[in-house]
Amino acid sequence: MRKLAFTLSLAAGPAMAAEGVPFFSFFNTSTVTLLAFITFVWVLVHLGVPGKLLAMLDQRAENIRKELNEAKALREEAQAILASYERKQREVREQAERIIEHAREEAKIAAEKAKEDLQETLARRMAAAEEQIASAHAQALKEVRDQAVQVAVAAAADVLAKKLTDAQNEELVSEAIEAVQTRLH
What we know:
Elements: H1 2-19, H2 29-46, H3 49-163, H4 166-184
């Protein structure tokens, strides 16, 4: 208490000189204010407010530390998820590239197959056309031969008719009938 009184006297010296009233008087407003302040501080200390304030500040610091740790954990988790999604994106991109490459290869194979099929079809059609041409040629030759035979037969018939006698004519017909009968039987 003496230390307090001594500290108060040192602090109150200038205030007492300014007012001209003794410092330890209740008429001095500085004394009353000082006593109220000391009482207020004593009540706060007696009620444990500084300890509670320190405890609250410690609790607040702990809560902030926990929130920072939680934020750090969430950040690490988000980074892990981001890395996972980036990895999946790379895998999907690689798979898409493989699918595109496979589709290109399939398209090349299909184009080559279509080209071969077209060549085979053209070859078959050319062969069919050549066969039709050969058939038409053979048919034309046959028709020309048949026509030539008919013309030759008609000409021979005219020549024979003019040169053969009736007896020779009957003999030739009889021989032709016998030849037909032998071939049919």
